[in-house]
């Protein structure tokens, strides 16, 4: 896609764990970023199973989104995705990390965002 969104981004966003696992098995990069916001598949995943597969596949749980300084944990907390939040924390996401600003007030932690 022109915006840099990959099939892995799309599968993660719709919560399709089987597609995420298949794409990772075919060599899709869990660290790929879209060019619009700098989202990785972890920033957009809607399902904890997808988050777990992405983490196991080498995704960076601390990847900072270019547009607003949010890590995947901040994005999941802002969207109310509690199971994704738990999965990211289990895979090493820093609970006390502060966001860079943008649509959410600069310096907020995921707990403050939720």
From TrEMBL:
<protein>
    <recommendedName>
        <fullName>Ankyrin repeat protein</fullName>
    </recommendedName>
</protein>
<dbReference type="Pfam" id="PF12796">
    <property type="entry name" value="Ank_2"/>
</dbReference>
<keyword id="KW-0040">ANK repeat</keyword>
<dbReference type="InterPro" id="IPR036770">
    <property type="entry name" value="Ankyrin_rpt-contain_sf"/>
</dbReference>
<feature type="repeat" description="ANK">
    <location>
        <begin position="68"/>
        <end position="100"/>
    </location>
</feature>
<dbReference type="InterPro" id="IPR002110">
    <property type="entry name" value="Ankyrin_rpt"/>
</dbReference>
<feature type="repeat" description="ANK">
    <location>
        <begin position="3"/>
        <end position="35"/>
    </location>
</feature>
<keyword id="KW-0677">Repeat</keyword>
